Every structure is written in C-alpha cells, then in structure tokens.
C-alpha cells in the first residue's frame, strides 16, 4: 500500500517536472530530497528518460529522408548564391563608385546645415545678450550723467529680466557681481548729493526766508489794498477832526505816516514776481534720494536720516547770535533763517509722500516756537531803544504772518508781543522821562511873549488854549504859561502816537487798543511826568517865580486833560463814554504837582524869611528902643511885597495861603527869636524896639499884599505876638492874671509859660543893671513887682497842670 502511494507521488513529481518551467522546479526537487525514497525516484526518472529517448529516435527515423532532400536542394542553391554574390559585389562596386560624389555632396550639405544651426543658435543667443549689453551700456551712461534714479531702474530691469534671459555667460556673471556694488555706489552718491543739498539749504535758508517774508508782505499788501485806502481816508478825517477839536501839532507825527507802514516798503518793491522757495532751491536731490532709497527698500533709513539731520539744523538755526539784540538786522537774519527752514519743510511735506509728516513738522514748530520766544524775551530785554523795539515788533508781526500763511499756529508770538508791549512802554517812559526833564531844564519859566498872530496860531496849534480876554488884547501880548506847557502837551501826544504804533497789526480790537493807550498814558502821567514835575519843583536853586510859573503851567495842563481824552478817542474810534473805559489820571497828576509847588512856595518863603531873620541883630540890653523898624525887617517886608506882587496870576487861594503862611511863620520866628535860649537878658528898651518891628509887620499885613482877605484877617497871624508885647509894654499883669482862662480875656493868646520865660529874662536884666543906681528904690519896687508876677505865673501854671 505504501509502495503504491510512493509510486503515485513519484509519477506526480515527474509530470510536474515535465510540465513546469525550470525556474520553478526547485520546490519540486526539494520534496524529492526531503523524502526517504530518493533511490526509487532516481530509478523512476531514469526509466522515464529512456522512454523519451526512444520516442525521439523514432521521430528522427521518420523524418530523415526529408532532411537529406533538403540538404541536396541547399547545395544547389549554393551555386546560385555564389553567382548572386558576384553580381551583388559588382553592383555594390558600381554603387560605391557612383555614391562617392553623393556622399561628398551630403557631407557638404550636413556641414552647411550644421553651420546654419550654429548661426541660428548664435543669433538667438545674441538676441538675448544684446539687450543686456545695451542695458549695461545705458546704465554706464546714466551713471556718468549722474542720473542715478533712472540708473537704478535700469539696474533693476537688467537684474530681473535681461540677465536671466541671456543665459550663463562670463560677462553676465561679471555684470551680476557688479550689481550690488553699483547699487551701493548709487546709494552713496545719492546720499552725498543729499548731504550737499542739506548743506546748501542751511546756507541759503536766510535768502529763502527773506524771499518768503517779502512774498507774505506783498500778498498782505495786495489783500488789504482796499482796506488801506479806506484807512487812509479815515486817517485824513481823523486828523481833520483832531486838528479842529484839539489843534493837533501840524509838525508832529501821526499814526498813519509812511514810516509806520512796516519794515519793508511795499510800494517800492519791484512789480516782478518774487521767486518762491522752489525757484531758489533745487529739491531734486531729495526726491532722487527718496526714490532711490525707496527702490532699494531702505526708505525708513532715509526718512530717519533726513529727519535727524534736519532736527540738528533746526537747533543750529534756532540758536541766536550773542549780539543779535544790537541791531534790527540781527533779528532779521534770525527770522529769515527760521522762515527759510520751515518753508523748505513745508515744501517737502507737500511734495513728498511721507518723507516728513504733519506731526513731525508740528513737533519741529513747537520746538522752534518755544526757543524763538525764549530768545526774543532774552535779547529784547537788553534793548533800550523804543524805535528798535517798534521795528522788532513789526518784524515779528511779519514773521508771524509769513508762517501763518504756511499753516503754522502763531498765537504764542502775538501773546509774546503783548508781553513786549509792557517792556516797550517802560522804554518809552524812560525816553519820555529824559524828554520831560530836558524840557523842564531848558524852560525859562516865563510867560510866552507873542508878537504876531502867526506865532499865536502856532502855539494854539500845539496846545488847546482858549482865553477870550487874551484874544481881545492887541499884539504883542503874553500867554500866561511858559514854553514847557505846549512842549509837554506835544510830548504827551507823541507818546500816544508811539503807543498806537505798537498796537497796529496785533489783531486787537479798537477797545483793547484804546484801553492799552489809556493805561500807558496814565503811567506816563502818574509816574514819569509826575516825577519830573516833582524833580523840577524840589531841585535846588528853584526860585519863587519859577514855582509860581509851575503852578500856572500845571493849571493849564490840568484844563487840557479832557482834550487828551478826545484825542485818544479820535485816533482809536472809541467813544470816551464807553462802559469800562479807562479814564486818564492827568487831572490828579497836575493837581498833585501844583500842590507840591504850592508847598514848595510856602517852604521857600519860610526859608527866605529865616534867611532875613538870621540878619537880625538886636541889642537885648538896650535901655531904650529906636523909633524906626530894623533894617533886616524893612528888607524882609520889601521882599515880601515884591514876591506877592508876582502872585497875581496864581489862583486866589494859593496866593492868600502863601501870604498867610508867610505871616504866621514870620510871627512864630520872631517869637522864637525873642525866647531862644541864647538870649539870656531882655531889657524893656529891647522889647520896645521889638515892638516897633512887629508894628511894621502889622502895617504890612494891614496893607493887604494879596487881595481877597476879609478885614484884618491877615493881622491874626501876629495876634499872639501883639498880645504878648502889649502885656509887657503896658505891664498889665493884673488884668492878665485876673481874666486868665476867660473867653473875653484881653490877653487870651498869651501862654503863661511864654510870659514866664520872657519875664525871667527881664528879671535877670533888672538884677544886673546898674545904670539906674540913683533910682534904687524904684528898681527895688520893680524887682519886687517882677518877683510877685513870676510867683503868680508859676502858681497859675501849677494850677493849670493840676
């Protein structure tokens, strides 16, 4: 059973070997060798091989005759093939001989086509290379012509389009290697041009600013042409009104004079168009450099560099020269540079996209504004010339208007001008202080003589003086005041004009201008003029006649104050009765000056009286008095009479007060002279002489040296002295002691202390006097009487003190 299965397996393997591709026989053979019947399989295989050999032999024997026949036929074909070969060889030889010329022609044709292909390839390559070479040549030409922005565009086109199309050639590689270097060269050259441009505008900013300010002034003049004509007509009307109302000085200045129209005279400007900043400056380096850096992708770097450099230049421009305050030209150069700087920045702002922006320009302007205002405050504080301050103000206004035309805010500049107005006012006050002092020093303090109507009209034109009585008088005649009245009045008007000049073009309302002028004029009146008048009154060697004239002058100036009010209202077009309008303090100023002069008159009169009293030389021990007044007193009375004769032009109360004051001082001084400590003894004879002098004084008072006193009012100045002398000369002690303290007392004005002091001096005289030795009993009685009176006076004094 097992052998049958083995035989069947071997049979299957043999069939599989016969039918299977030899590449896959390996697994089959492995199965044979894996089994135990290897020998049996080999025997089986040998038997199968023998069977196939027998079958092959049978098949060969069956087809052998056909094979022999085929060989025989093949031998016959061989001969024919030899013949054919000979014919083919002969034909080939003929063909080879005939084809040599064709091959030569074909070779020539091939070579020609190769050349054509090479030429076509060369043309194609040149077609791609020639634009590169032309572009590079164009680039070199642009570089030589310094057309760097087109060169950069050419370089970009060369790099992006031409070189990639040209292929890989050595010259292309060289060009590609040179492109970064050329870019760097263009960038450096354009930056160098920018630096030259920045240096150029730094040097020429003065000229740019000057041109811009001229343009602004011309434009303002054109815009305000109609307004200026109207103002001129109004100015003529105002001058006519002022002249008719207050007789304005025809030779004085006025606020609409040509010299006040501005720093630059627009009418003298050439009619040709003034060039703008773009006409004076070539901005192409900035645009070119901006475009180049934009193309190079470094726009931020360029913007930062430009702004940084311009900030540095701004700081240099805003740094004023140390001597800028000395001349107007120094301020002009300073403003021109600032205007030139911002004109350039404004042009860059509007002609480039983002190189500078509004925030950057405003930041620079804020810096410039703060530094400019600080510099102006510092340098203007050194200025002491009002004309320079006024010119500077006009220049600042033009500076502000110019920059305002470019859109820059300038309110702070006008605020600073309002601050400078106070400084200008102080400088004006100093200048007018000198003018007033010069007028007062040069005045002769005498009434002005007028010989002709023309002279009278000239003075009336300078000072609003109206006196119907004086007008009726024939020439020659004298005006009551001296030269300093019309001169001071003219100076007051000049000061008002000077204040008005400063207020022009400051964009102030008429009310503000009026208020400013009135406040400044009040300062001039209350501070400057008042001090000058006080100086003139208080200075040494001023005489009574001069003081009298000062009182007369100040009286007329006080009366002219309302004309000044009208004058200011006319030039400012603000009615004087406007609510909250500042009133002039001229009336109080001149009143104070007049009162000071009056006090000085009183003081001078008293000093003169004291000087005369110093000449008194009484013999206080004289036994008998003289029959006439002392020489010093006669001279004093004569001086007082001549002095009070000058007081005829003074107001009545002033003359009366001066006369009363002089008499009281004389009375008091005489009493002090009688009671002074140096006079130790007083005789009855001395009292009699003293009484004669007092009677002379009373005669002077009774004569009425100054009109206006009622009755014997002036005699009351000597009442104290009169009662004292009457008491002693009449020796009426019983009445004095009996009636003392009663309102009806005859000697009511006699002070017991004064009487006691004088009595003590007489007692000492009685004790030492030996001239009346033969009348010793009378002397003793008199001495006892004096002692009794002294004792009673002392008791009276003690009782009053208790």
Automatic annotation (TrEMBL):
Gene3D superfamilies associated with the record: Dsl1p vesicle tethering complex, Tip20p subunit, domain D, Exocyst complex subunit Sec15 C-terminal domain, N-terminal subdomain
Record carries keyword Endoplasmic reticulum: no
GO biological process, one term: Golgi to plasma membrane transport
Keywords noted in UniProt: Exocytosis, Transport
Keyword Oxidoreductase annotated: no
Residues covered by the Exocyst complex subunit EXOC6/Sec15 C-terminal domain: 412-761
Any one GO CC term of the record: exocyst
Alphabetized Pfam families for the sequence: EXOC6_Sec15_N, Sec15_C
Residue span(s) of domain Exocyst complex component EXOC6/Sec15 N-terminal: 44-213
Domain of life: Eukaryota
Role played: Component of the exocyst complex involved in the docking of exocytic vesicles with fusion sites on the plasma membrane.
Family per similarity comment: Belongs to the SEC15 family.
PANTHER family: EXOCYST COMPLEX COMPONENT 6B, SEC15
The protein's name in its UniProt record: Exocyst complex component
Originating species: Cirrhinus molitorella
């Amino acid at each position: 059973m097992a052998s049958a299965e083995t035989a069947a397996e071997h049979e299957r393997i043999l069939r599989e070997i016969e039918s299977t591709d030899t590449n896959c026989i390996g697994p089959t053979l492995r199965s044979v060798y894996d089994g135990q019947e290897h020998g049996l399989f080999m025997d089986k295989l040998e038997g199968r091989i023998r069977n196939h050999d027998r079958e092959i032999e049978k098949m060969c024997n069956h087809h052998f005759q056909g094979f022999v026949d085929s060989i025989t036929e093949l031998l016959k074909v061989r001969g024919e093939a030899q013949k054919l070969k000979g014919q083919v060889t002969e034909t080939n030889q003929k063909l080879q001989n005939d084809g040599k010329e064709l091959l030569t022609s074909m070779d020539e044709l091939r070579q020609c086509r190769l050349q054509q292909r090479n030429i076509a390839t060369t043309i194609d390559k040149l077609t791609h290379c020639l634009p590169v070479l032309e572009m590079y040549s164009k680039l070199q030409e642009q570089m030589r012509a310094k057309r760097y922005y087109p060169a950069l565009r050419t370089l970009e086109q060369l790099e992006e389009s031409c070189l990639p199309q040209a292929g890989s050639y050595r010259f292309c590689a060289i060009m590609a290697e040179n492109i970064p270097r050329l870019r760097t060269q263009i960038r450096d050259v354009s930056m160098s041009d920018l630096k030259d441009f920045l240096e150029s505008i730094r040097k020429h900013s003065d000229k740019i600013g000057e041109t811009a300010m001229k343009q602004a002034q011309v434009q303002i003049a054109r815009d305000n042409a109609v307004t200026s004509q109207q103002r001129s007509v109004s100015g003529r009307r105002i001058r006519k009104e002022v002249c008719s109302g207050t007789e304005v000085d025809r030779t004085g200045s006025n606020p609409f004079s040509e010299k006040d129209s501005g720093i630059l005279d627009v009418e003298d400007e050439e009619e040709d168009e003034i060039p703008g900043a773009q006409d004076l400056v070539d901005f192409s380096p900035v645009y070119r450099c901006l475009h180049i850096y934009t193309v190079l992708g470094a726009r931020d770097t360029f913007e930062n560099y430009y702004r940084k450099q311009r900030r540095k230049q701004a700081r240099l421009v805003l740094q004023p020269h140390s001597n800028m305050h000395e001349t107007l030209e120094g301020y002009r150069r300073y403003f021109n540079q600032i205007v030139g700087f911002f004109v350039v920045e404004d042009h860059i702002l509007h002609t480039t996209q983002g190189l500078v922006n509004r925030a950057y320009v405003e930041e620079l302007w804020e810096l410039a504004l703060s530094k400019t205002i600080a510099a102006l405050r510092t340098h203007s504080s050194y200025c002491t010339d009002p004309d320079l301050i006024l010119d500077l103000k006009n220049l600042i206004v033009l500076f502000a208007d110019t920059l305002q035309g470019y859109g820059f805010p300038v309110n702070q500049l006008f605020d600073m001008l309002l601050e400078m107005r106070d400084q200008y006012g102080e400088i004006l006050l100093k200048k007018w202080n000198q003018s007033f002092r010069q007028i007062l020093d040069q005045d002769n303090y005498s009434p002005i003589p007028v010989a002709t109507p023309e002279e009278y009209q000239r003075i009336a034109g300078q000072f609003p003086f109206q006196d119907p009585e004086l007008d009726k008088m024939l020439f020659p005649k004298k005006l009551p005041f001296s030269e300093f009245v019309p001169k001071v009045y003219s100076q007051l008007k000049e000061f008002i004009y000077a204040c008005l000049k400063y207020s022009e073009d400051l964009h102030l309302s008429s009310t503000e201008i009026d208020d400013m002028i009135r406040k400044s004029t009040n300062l001039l009146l209350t501070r400057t003029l008042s001090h000058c008048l006080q100086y003139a009154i208080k200075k040494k060697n001023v005489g009574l006649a001069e003081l009298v004239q000062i009182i007369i002058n100040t009286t007329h100036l006080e009366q002219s104050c309302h004309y000044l009010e009208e004058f200011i209202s006319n030039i400012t077009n603000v009615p004087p009765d406007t609510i909250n309008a500042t009133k002039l303090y001229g009336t109080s100023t001149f009143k104070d000056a007049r009162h000071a002069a009056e006090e000085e008159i009183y003081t001078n009169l008293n000093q003169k009286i004291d000087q005369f009293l110093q000449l008194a030389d009484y013999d206080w021990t004289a036994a008998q008095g003289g029959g006439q007044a002392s020489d010093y007193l006669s001279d004093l009375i004569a001086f007082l009479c001549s002095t009070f004769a000058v007081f005829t032009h003074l107001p009545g109360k002033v003359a009366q007060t001066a006369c009363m004051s002089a008499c009281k001082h004389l009375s008091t001084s005489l009493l002090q002279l009688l009671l002074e400590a140096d006079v130790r003894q007083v005789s009855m004879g001395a009292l009699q002489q003293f009484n004669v002098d007092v009677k002379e004084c009373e005669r002077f008072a009774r004569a009425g040296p100054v009109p206006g006193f009622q009755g014997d009012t002036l005699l009351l100045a000597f009442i104290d002295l009169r009662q004292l002398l009457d008491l002693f000369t009449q020796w009426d002690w019983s009445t004095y002691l009996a009636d003392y303290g009663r309102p009806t007392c005859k000697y009511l004005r006699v002070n017991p202390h004064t009487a006691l002091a004088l009595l003590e001096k007489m007692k000492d005289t009685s004790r030492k006097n030996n001239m009346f030795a033969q009348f010793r009993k009378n002397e003793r009685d008199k001495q006892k009487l004096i002692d009794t009176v002294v004792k009673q006076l002392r008791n009276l004094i003690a009782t009053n003190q208790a």
